[in-house]
Amino acid sequence: MAEDGCVRSVAIIGAGAAGAITAAAFAAEEYFERIQVFERRESAGGTWIYDSSPPSKLPLKPGSLPPELDPSLPVPNNLPEITSPNEQERFTQTPIYSSLTTNVPAIAMPFSDLPFAYGPFVPHHIPKQYIESYFAYHKIDSLLSLNTTIEDVSLISPPNSAKEKWKLTLRKHDPVRQVDVWWEDAFDAVVLANGHYSVPFIPEVTGLAAYMKLFPGRIQHSKTYRTPLLYTNKKVLIIGNSASAKDLSMDLLSTVAHPLYLSRRSASRWDGPSPPRGIIWKPVVKEYRMDGRIVFDDESYVDGVDTVIYCTGYLPSFPFWDAKNNGREIWDYKKNKLAKTYLHTFFHDFKTLGIVGMPRVLTFRSFEYQAIALARLWSGRQTKALPGLEVQEGWEEEREILGKRQGKKFHDIEWGTGETLGWLGELYEIAGLGKLTGEGRTPPVIGEEVRWAIENLRKYPEPGKDKDEKRKGKVEGESVSREDRLEGGDAEQWVLVGRRAEKDLLSFI
Ligand SMILES: Cc1cc2nc3c(=O)[nH]c(=O)nc-3n(C[C@H](O)[C@H](O)[C@H](O)COP(=O)(O)OP(=O)(O)OC[C@H]3O[C@@H](n4cnc5c(N)ncnc54)[C@H](O)[C@@H]3O)c2cc1C
Ligand SMILES: NC(=O)c1ccc[n+]([C@@H]2O[C@H](COP(=O)([O-])OP(=O)(O)OC[C@H]3O[C@@H](n4cnc5c(N)ncnc54)[C@H](OP(=O)(O)O)[C@@H]3O)[C@@H](O)[C@H]2O)c1
């Protein structure tokens, strides 16, 4: 913090959706003297930047966690400094594949002040263009520092003192001179908007590490999948049964040798009693054998597989977090959660550190509430102060206990139980209204239309459950056909279900 204990300068790490809305919310306050958004990629867009040529040899190590796979870079001793370019894999590319469309309806996904160009489920270039132009739309593109990676974040004053301040170590690649330029900078506050779908996760399975050595390239992760053409006539096994596994299996059916094998640990909301035509379901893999055989939990097996694609998700990585200096880790890999957080946004022990984008919930729209709450709080204009340490710790403890009891991940927030509205409501109350004279952004409402879209529009139908599904039809009892407002979408790509689902409605996010 500045000498008077106020936050005047803010660094935002990442220019994806979370960084974009954070920058907009902070700029709207017209209070902060310096806001800077640091982005390691060549443009804003985060997840939605399509990399047509992914690395062919992405380091994959069964059971390995990001601190091992994606360690911090050694910082030169005396800064500023110019070094030869970094050659360590930083997992900067995104997992977007050629056919990917969004899975959250366009009425509910974007920020409240700017719609997507069309809907309901749009190709990946739409959110990419949207995030990039969102910076320009708010005239905050000048806040962006591109090709700039934050390599170290260190607190340089005692926590909770009136003088909290952060030292950032930055690295910018200069493609003309073919060098990396390193320097330091200091800010009163830092918002982490670095995303969490960069470092792929592959579970440990008996024989898998040796199998990978014996058959190089046979084991892949959905992070590097781009098109089904590479797999023409190949025998393919997909591991996992969430959004990536669903999309990839549908994509691959057009080219691979049938059947396509899909190994499921649990049923997804799209699964009916039997697999789609062309797919054979298998249980979890039990063992990889050196003769190439892959054995499943029920002792069944497949031989002669050309490619196994792990669609087992990602783990958050914070290689820039200086745990030694800052006194603790930021992510608990055992509990799979942020450490010492309140409302998934604030930290118990660092008043001037915030995070936007972690919960697996409404994405862009929910990031807006987090960003506004942080901006209002650090400009001293919040309506409601954060509660004391005891309440914040109690919130975290209670959530951990509840998660254990219900088998739920700490940062997954449900829609159907009212949990999403409860969480957004708390952020909404902290933020309060913007000023009458225009400074500050007011958190939006989750209006009837947004709630309707979440509850009624699906990218994929749920077989046997969506009995009353209609394609571009009128929902029973509706006086106005809402899909009139969804013009432009591909009718074959989505369904209007007009009913409540059993599994949580946002469980696909
Ligand atoms: C395959 C896939 C499909 C998805 N589909 C949907 C969907 O249909 N609908 C939906 O709502 N959500 C979807 N998501 C979730 C998606 O990630 C969120 O919608 C959203 O884009 C996340 O935004 P973010 O800003 O939090 O993170 P990101 O988009 O990951 O942005 C983080 C940014 O931080 C930068 N960064 C990281 N570390 C540093 C550093 N040290 N220094 C500088 N910059 C750094 C990264 O380069 C990146 O640009 C999908 C995710 C994946 C992986
Ligand atoms: N727009 C789109 O259509 C689209 C497409 C792809 C991805 N995405 C988004 O991208 C994000 C990541 O999705 P994702 O599908 O890649 O990952 P994910 O949702 O985290 O799913 C991981 C899958 O791997 C399985 N898994 C994890 N560990 C396993 C283990 N040890 N053994 C066997 N199976 C295991 C999980 O099974 P359990 O369910 O049993 O845990 C789950 O099916 C999500 O936000 C998703 O919405 C969106």
TrEMBL record:
Keywords: FAD, Flavoprotein, NADP, Oxidoreductase
Transmembrane segments: none
Residue segments, region Disordered: 461-486
Pfam families assigned to the protein according to its UniProt record, in alphabetical order: FMO-like, NAD_binding_8
Name this protein carries in UniProt: FAD/NAD(P)-binding domain-containing protein
Gene Ontology MF terms: flavin adenine dinucleotide binding; N,N-dimethylaniline monooxygenase activity; NADP binding
Source organism of this protein record: Hyaloscypha bicolor E
UniProt KW Mitochondrion keyword: no
Membership in a protein family: Belongs to the FMO family.
Highest taxon in the source lineage: Eukaryota
